[in-house]
Every structure is written in C-alpha cells, then in structure tokens.
Amino acid sequence: MKIARIVTTVVGTPWRELTFVELETDDGRVGVGEVRMVNKTETLLAAIRELGDRYVIGSDPFDVERIAWGVQWTEYGRAGEVAQSALAAIDIACWDLIGQATGQPVWRLLGGRFRDAVPAYANGWYQGDREPAAIADLARTVVDRGYRALKLDPFGAATADLSAGELARSVSIVEAVRGAVGDDVAILVEMHGRFRSATAARVARALDHLQPGWLEEPVPPGNVVGLRNVRTATTLPIATGERIHSLDDVAPLLEQGLVDTLQTDLTHFGGFTGLRKLAGWAAAYNVPLAPHNVCGPVGTMANVHFAVATPNFQVLEHFNDFADSWVLDLVDGAPSVDQATGAFSVPEAPGLGVRLDREAAAEHPSNGATFNLFAVGWERREGTALHSTPVAVNP
C-alpha cells in the first residue's frame, strides 16, 4: 500500500476554517485528517502540498516515524506551527489508513482500551452579551446537555492588564456561572495568554474562592519567568500548552513544575506520532494531557481515539455542540457527547471511523474567516477583523 494522492478540502465558518486532508492509496483506500489553522489556511495548504510532495507521496502510510522525521529533521529548519500542523493532518490520515488496513480502530493500535468513555468539556457556548445573568443562562444550557465541565474567557478583549472595574466584572461573570451550574460542575477559566504575570496573579487571587478547575494560559506562551511568578502566587491548577509545537518547548514547563495540565494540540503537534511521545514524557512528571481541540468532527474523533488509549489523559475540549454545530454533518459517524454521561463513547469502527462527505463540505467553501481574540465582541464568534484596534492598557 502506497500513498498516491493528497486531497485537501477547506470548510469555512464565520470564525474558523477547517482543513481536511485525505490520503488516497494505490489500492483504493482513503484516510482522513483535519486541522484548524488560525488565520493562516493558505500557508497551511502550501506546506501540505510542498511537504507532501517531498515526504508523503509514494510512502507507505505505516511509516509514520519516517514521514515525521522528514518534516522535523530533514528540512533542517525548526518545525514550528505550520509544519507541525501540516504533519499532524497527514499523520492522522496515515493512522486512519493503518487502522483500515488492519481492521482495527486507531485506539487499539495506540495501546488499546485504557478507558471506556472520554470525558469532555464544552467551549464556544458563551456567545451572548458579556453580562453575568446572560452568560449564566447560557451555562445552564451546557449542563442541560450533560456536560460536567465548561470553559469560558470572561475578560473581554483585555491585553496585559485589567482595570479594577473590568476585573470585578470578570469575576462577577464567573460567580454567576458558578451559581448557575453548582459546585459539582468544573469551571475552567481561559485567559488566552492575555496578561503580564502581576495581573494574572491578581486575577488568580480574585477567583480563588470560586475554585476553578484550572487557569489556562495566564501569561503569553514562552514567558516561562512570568508563568513561574503566577505559579508562586496561586495554588490553583495551571493549564497551558496549546501554542507549543515541539518537545523541547515543553521541557521547562515539566522540569520546573510550572504546569498541572498540558493542553498540547494533537493537530498542531505532529498528530498521534508526536503527541503520544509527549504523553509518555509528561507521565514521568505525573502531568495529564487535556488536548486543545477547536477542530470539527475528524480532529475531534482523532482526539477521542488518543484519549481512549492514553492513561494520563484528563478531559477533551469540544466546540461543535455550540459553535457551528452543522459541521457534524460533514462526516458520517461524527463523535458526540452522551447527554447522560458528558463523555464520548469508544469508537469501534476500523481506523478513525469517519469519512468526509465532500459534497456536504462543498456547500461551505473557504471564506477567508479570521479570528481575533483581542477584538471587542470576539466571544460572539461571528468573525473579526485581523487589525482591530487593541484595547488600551490601563485606560
């Protein structure tokens, strides 16, 4: 079995573009992968084409390590976000083909069944006015769908710092959500790397009484000193890692005890082949993985397979019940969260168990959608201008 052709399909939504990669083999099989690239879809497509011609066409899909080596080492330059994302989509599709060829679901090839269900948390649900009562009402709809955990960023378009009034407003939003969902539902607070460390520490102290399940990206990625300052200032769990793309970037987080949950993204970290290496390393530090997941149904299904087989998996992010739920119709056998358990079930079909419907995808072509977390009103996920004027620091 050799890979004979790479087919890419981009699906556009108001705030994200989903790139699907299909690998067609010389014996008629088709494997599928997916990645959501923030604002650089055309760059991603160029990388898939260039790297695919060099390392994928003509390869045996079982040779995932060899393909990864080509992208990460033979290219000589450091493999960053774009290359690792291109590799991830290809790698996921390769594992889909391996599963089809062996007649096994991917999770069985990754180590077998470790768990019987994959716990999930909801994101993308808070698309209303940034007011405590309105967001509390939306939070109730999340719990009504069976989720036992939800995440929100209550900080608006803040950058670097927060005024006293904005901090109070943000805390009141989280308080309203806590009042709406009760103490048995985990509230995960997303900070999107907005703050300098002193501000992040101040926010942590203000939220401590609400006992969030974690504080996510309290400082920008790469600011190890700032993260250490936040770590010292709070006993709340810290989660980070969605914008980390290589193993060496994880080293200070693990070795200095700066992270309680790693959120490295399967589709930006080289796929199954990359993330399973990180999972083994993180296990040595007793650190679990809660993969960042803003994908549609294919990327989500890949994450479910990874979670089933990975002992130190914690919980999986899920957007598709609340943001662009129609993307579930792009495939057959889309993964869904059980309303009774708040978890995904274990897939049993060979490979990933999903197939892209190209006709359905063609109804939602690429639209150049961009997303700016520092634009006022970004929470509505209606698409935002890349060059919006940033909010002033300490106005």
UniProtKB/TrEMBL annotation:
Q: Which domain of life is it from?
A: Bacteria
The chain positions of domain Mandelate racemase/muconate lactonizing enzyme C-terminal read 132-237
Q: Cross-referenced Gene3D superfamilies, in alphabetical order? A: Enolase-like C-terminal domain, Enolase-like, N-terminal domain
Is Mitochondrion one of the keywords?
no
The record's keywords, sorted A to Z, are: Lyase
Checking Pfam families in the record gives: MR_MLE_C, MR_MLE_N
Q: What is the designated name of this protein?
A: Mandelate racemase/muconate lactonizing enzyme family protein
Please report the organism this UniProt entry assigns to the protein: Microbacterium aoyamense
